[in-house]
Fold each of these.
Amino acid sequence: KNEVEQSPQNLTAQEGEFITINCSYSVGISALHWLQQHPGGGIVSLFMLSSGKKKHGRLIATINIQEKHSSLHITASHPRDSAVYICAVVLSQKLVFGQGTRLTINP
Amino acid sequence: DVKVTQSSRYLVKRTGEKVFLECVQDMDHENMFWYRQDPGLGLRLIYFSYDVKMKEKGDIPEGYSVSREKKERFSLILESASTNQTSMYLCASSFLGGPVGTIYFGEGSWLTVV
């Protein structure tokens, strides 16, 4: 079993829809990252969370440490949000990655 | 603007060749990482370094070595490339204290071994 599980693996939605991507982990962590990877490979860090909730523009990330669960929400989704979203947890100063969620937003 | 630069975006090498992948960061970060990314397996840590001339094995170090002679540069070496090392390789860096803070990634290097 992976230490970090994401769901769904693939998600297709229409422009404007509210998107939720989930991440569950099985071990105690010090922090969790949400990352975005566009076609071509480069990865950008969206959020680093250790508790509560963070918001940046149309993106919202939440974490529940007790339940070992985090969610990434996108409001008013747009085709430019199409990317792979990766959850990564911090374990002993190293990152352990989920498999990623491939999000496609159709116009 | 912060930057992690990987020297080659696309490489094609023959089995048995020695391959160097270079990574340079301009943020004075202590930590640098090499990952490989494969479909269905996600990102896996090959090696990391927390200081010049220091290195630690990650989860899949077999078949790889690294070099960190200067703080800004971290090289991944495939001593004798094999077809199962065909993959996308990502370099990353962060400040000391581990990747608790923001971690920065390069654009990736797509390596094909034939």
Amino acid sequence: QSVLTQPPSASGTPGQRVTISCSGSSSNIGSYYVYWYQQLPGTAPKVLIYRNDQRPSGVPDRFSGSKSGTSASLAISGLRSEDEADYYCAAWDDSLTGVVFGGGTKLTVL
Amino acid sequence: EVQLVESGGGLVKPGGSLRLSCAASGFTFSNAWMSWVRQAPGKGLEWVGRIKSKTDGGTTDYAAPVKGRFTVSRDDSENTLYLQMDSLITEDTAVYYCTTPRKDSSAWLEYWGQGTLVAVSS
């Protein structure tokens, strides 16, 4: 059971907008930045969103992040087939003195 | 260009030990905090532990499932990060990634290695 809660799966058709939620508590998301990672099949994860809503250079602006209270979400607009991947949220947790991840959301582009 | 190359994975019996290495290049290793993240087959990401730079105290933190069994260390003269894994159990079977957390936020894992597979089985 992961400390951060994500839906196990999400799907959409090309061009659609999908959102992935991430729920935590006051000891993690409620107090710290949220990060989103994208893991394409067979590869290592990479940072997609940092500090709640910032995109590293090279990440398309189709990807956006937000945070409110103890929850966060990742939105992907203009869905493309190459977005098919696993997405993870992460944050520091004060109570556990460590990084906690969501269980991951498998995004399928129909 | 930042490169992180893990090695040392393999098959080990329950109760056994293994030491993973991560060779780092492309950045000032001695100033960096480093961490390990693992991923069991078909499962999600799990943070294992981190080590701060010596100038920041060189202290370590561990996830509860590995605390007391795993040890993160570093050799700044060799630009290498280590993960000593003792008393291994089947649940430790995973791909282990070496990562570079930002000092201002350890959940910001900027760079990742390609991972090395550890299989614990009798």
